UniProtKB/TrEMBL annotation:
Short name of one Pfam family: TetR_C_11
Species classification: Bacteria, Bacillati, Actinomycetota, Actinomycetes, Kitasatosporales
Ranges annotated as DNA-binding: 41-60
InterPro entries per UniProt: Homeodomain-like_sf, HTH-type_TetR-like_transc_reg, HTH_TetR, Tet_transcr_reg_TetR-rel_C_sf, TetR_C
Presence of keyword Iron: no
Organism of derivation: Streptomyces castrisilvae
Descriptive protein name: TetR/AcrR family transcriptional regulator
Source species, domain of life: Bacteria
Length: 203
């Protein structure tokens, strides 16, 4: 039985059970990318992962618990942030990493499914918020270091600068349908740098 206040599936297994978790999360990601959240079925995930249904139901209990664990795992496995010594180069690297993720046939479809689910399911929304908090927190170091080097004004909100880089790319993915390419990524990074240097994100 899950501990009170802990979402099923979010407690990290160790030893050989880690292999089961890896297989199930990979299968869940595939199913999400193919069919979306509405058709995510734990029995189907178990079949894809070649794991007993009882194991999946006992460990994750619901599609929401499975998505929460999948997002946590994705945050942990994401590429580390750039450390180029230049804010412009660091944020360009961030933008291109976001671009690579969103244009990947599997990852892009997966994110669209999870974001859609988060609009109507509070627990999925919480898991998605945790995912982005981890990734923004990782990349905010680029901005903090830029402040320390004197590239940006003191008091610049590092998290807001990082969010400003990816926001235009997500808008293209989810709303406008405009092309998602390197030009769009580089432009988003450049705009964030210019705004930050102008003091737009100073608290």
């Amino acid at each position: 039985m899950a501990s009170e206040g802990v979402e099923p599936g979010t407690v990290r297994p160790g030893g050989r059970t880690a292999r089961v978790r890896e297989a199930v999360l990979r299968a869940a990601g595939d199913a999400l990318a193919e069919h979306g959240f509405d058709r995510l079925d734990l029995a189907d995930v178990a079949r894809r992962a070649e794991v007993g249904k009882t194991t999946v139901y006992r460990r994750w209990s619901s599609p929401t618990g499975l998505i929460a664990d999948l997002l946590d795992d994705m945050a942990e496995q994401s590429s580390p942030r750039a450390r180029t010594g230049s804010l412009a180069d660091d944020l360009r690297a961030n933008a291109r990493l976001v671009l690579k993720t969103l244009t990947d046939p599997r990852q892009g479809a997966l994110f669209r499914s999870v974001i859609a689910a988060a609009t109507c399911d509070p627990r999925t929304a919480q898991a998605l918020h945790r995912f982005y908090a981890v990734r923004v927190g990782e990349w905010s170091g680029c901005v903090t270091e830029a402040v320390e080097r004197g590239e940006l004004p003191a008091g610049t909100d590092a998290d807001e600068v990082v969010r400003a880089v990816s926001a235009p790319l997500y808008y293209r993915l989810l709303a406008s349908g405009d092309p998602l390419d390197e030009a769009a990524a580089d432009r988003a990074a450049e705009a964030a740098v210019l705004a930050a240097k102008a003091g737009a994100y100073v608290n």
